[in-house]
Amino acid sequence: MPAQLSQEEIFRYSRHVVLPEVGLAGQARLKEASVLIVGTGGLGSPAAMYLTAAGVGHIGIVDYDVVDSSNLQRQVIHDTTTLGELKVESARRRMLNINPYIRVDAINEVFSSENARRIASGYDIIIDGTDNFPTRYLINDLCVLTSKPYVYGSIFRFEGQVSVFDARQGPCYRCLFSEPPPPGTVPTCADGGVFGVLPGTVGTIQATEAIKLILGIGTPLIGKLLLFDALDMSFQTVQLRKNPNCRICSPNPTVVELIDYEKFCGLPVNNHNPLPSNGQEIEPRELEERLRNGDSIQLIDVRDPVESQISHLPGALSIPYPQIERRLSELNPQQEIVLFCRTGIRSAYALQTLSNAGFHKVSHLRGGINAWAREIEKGMLQY
């Protein structure tokens, strides 16, 4: 029996039900539908709020983080009053304030190969609100293996991408990206930055695609990749083809079960400690003491130059991480080198690059310049 709509629900969704493409039957389908959103950050925020407002009856939200003030520039489902709260609880409360006629499951877990099937089992569609490659490949493979559509979204600085991957009708994510990029080559939003309104645009398009799939209306982005440039205010659509040799959705797949995606991508879902440093970390207090004693240390700032407007260490040579490999000739392998970035992520990758190139007197600042600001220069700005 189709879902029944109350008088209050009909009035609430009246601008939907008067659309011939939706009507009462379509609104009932939205009420019966279930969508899982992995991530309640920049993309998950608008997707969750618009699916909630549209009346999708069962929404699951998965995250493992807490609300931080640096989130509020773009993660609009959270606010100042929820700082320090679990993101899923903050998001759930906001969603139910928007629409109390839906069910919201708040799942405070890291989405992983071990729990993905269990978490996703009760949902029709999965929306990707993540910012890391291991989880993207995990969502894709899960959707292929369980025959679910995967609504993909990705953002970087001023650009965004959206697609719907459904291996039953078109290509999957692996058809487009058969292998992940080398670790460290694609900065996270924390390190590369993101235009605050960009995830609002991309996440809203993801919600649009999910609603179209539920209602069976329009033309979904299956077999197409939508590219958005906020600076040019331009949209382009690229046609995608199914890879006949895809490792998971081809007639002869080699991936037949969920795998270790952190190992596959060479980095963990949780980027707090992305690379083993093999003991080549230096603590802020040790570095400060050695600099004060006049030790000969070459400081290398691997951040983007714009970041030095916020904070900097005197005497540091600026070599942004993407330039490290081609600027090795500027460095003396006989001199002790200390690399630093914002939090220690890019400097850990830079350390690996230098170590592979034969530099042995190299370490990186644990926790980056933000740790230096917390422990050494208390007046230095953090970001």
Provide the fold topology.
Layout: H1 7-12, H2 14-17, H3 23-32, E1 34-38, H4 44-54, E2 58-63, H5 87-98, E3 103-108, H6 116-120, E4 125-128, H7 133-146, E5 150-156, E6 159-165, H8 173-176, H9 189-192, H10 198-215, E7 224-229, E8 234-239, H11 261-265, E9 281-282, H12 284-292, E10 297-301, E11 317-318, E12 336-340, H13 345-356, E13 362-365, H14 368-375
Parallel strand pairs: 1-2, 1-4, 2-3, 4-5, 9-13, 10-11, 10-12, 12-13
Antiparallel strand pairs: 5-6, 6-7, 7-8
In CATH, the topology of the largest domain is named Rossmann fold
Secondary-structure-based class equals alpha/beta
Q: What CATH architecture of the largest domain do you see? A: 3-Layer(aba) Sandwich
Helix content: 25-40%
The top level CATH class name of the largest domain: Alpha Beta
End-to-end separation? 53 Å
Query: Into how many domains do the coordinates divide?
Result: 2
Tell me the Rg in angstroms.
23 Å
Uncertain runs are none
Could you give the order of strands across the largest sheet?
A: 3-2-1-4-5-6-7-8
Characterize the biggest β-sheet.
8 strands, mixed
Residues in β-strands, percent: 15-25%
Shape annotation = elongated
What is the CATH superfamily of the largest domain?
NAD(P)-binding Rossmann-like Domain
Average residue-wise pLDDT? 95
The number of helices is: 14
Annotation, overall tally of beta strands: 13
Please provide the ordered H/E string of secondary-structure elements: HHHEHEHEHEHEEHHHEEHEHEEEHEH
